[in-house]
Write a structure and sequence with these properties.
This protein is flat. It starts with 21 loop residues before the first helix and ends in a 28-residue tail after the last helix. A hairpin with a 4-residue loop joins strand 1 and strand 2. It is an alpha+beta fold and 220 residues long. It has three domains: 56 residues, no CATH class; 81 residues, Rossmann fold (3-Layer(aba) Sandwich), CATH 3.40.50; 53 residues, no CATH class. Helix 4 packs parallel to helix 5. It has a five-stranded mixed β-sheet, sandwiched between helices.
């Protein structure tokens, strides 16, 4: 019986592969701050299976660079603290070494398409802007100046005007929410704060043992 010849690469990755394809690398690697055109020429000569599995030093380096780019973009999307004013301008500060500002701006645009998003990059000193139509631009200016300039030409939006709170109002709302009776769990409370803790300075009066103390000034 004639043995069938498998023409596929015996090293071909099946299923969930590590690394990236040639297309993914060529498209995204230029975002890295240390990218040079010479790297792309080397990548094209490397079989994809070697790239995906970091089979050579250059493949390992490329995958590491790709990981740095995707990680930075992910962190900026998930952990950037933003504010919104009553003119529908969403703004915040990021620290991006790589060229991923457009990815972060598009993420916020997809979540708040009715807003103009402004993000100041502390690394480059520039502010990225994406408008309601998804048009992106970067301006060599501070976040404050950009937000003021953009807001000046926009009307007050009642919806965003209604959700503007002072720091005191936000604190009071969050503080009161901790004392909803349905959330009380004395057994859990005692496990997390053993009686021995009440012997520590500042806890000896026992005020922290009570669930319904609602004024922080009592402790100051």
């Amino acid at each position: 019986m004639r043995k069938e010849i498998n023409e596929k690469d015996p090293l071909q990755v099946v299923g969930c592969a590590k690394g990236h394809s040639h297309e993914e690398i060529i498209h995204n690697l230029p975002r890295h701050q240390n990218y040079t055109p010479n790297i792309i020429q080397q990548i094209k000569r490397i079989p994809e299976v070697i790239l995906r599995n970091s089979g050579t030093l250059i493949a390992k380096k490329v995958n590491h660079m790709m990981r740095e780019v995707t990680t930075e973009a992910y962190r900026a999307k998930q952990f950037t603290r933003t504010e919104i004013n009553n003119r529908g301008v969403l703004f915040g500060v990021v620290l991006l070494k790589h060229r991923v500002m457009d990815l972060v701006l598009k993420y916020f645009h997809e979540r708040w398409p009715e807003c103009i998003t402004c993000l100041y990059n502390e690394h480059s000193g520039k502010t990225g802007i994406i408008n309601e139509r998804g048009v992106i631009q970067e301006i060599d200016s501070t976040l404050k100046n950009v937000v003021e300039g953009v807001s000046k030409n926009r009307p007050v939006i009642p919806y965003f005007d209604d959700i503007q709170f002072s720091g005191g109002e936000i604190f009071e709302t969050l503080y009161k929410s901790q004392f909803i009776s349905e959330r009380e769990n004395q057994n859990y409370f005692k496990r997390m704060i053993p009686d021995k803790c009440f012997e520590l300075p500042g806890m000896r009066s026992g005020v922290e043992k009570h669930f319904r103390n609602k004024k922080i000034n009592d402790y100051l």
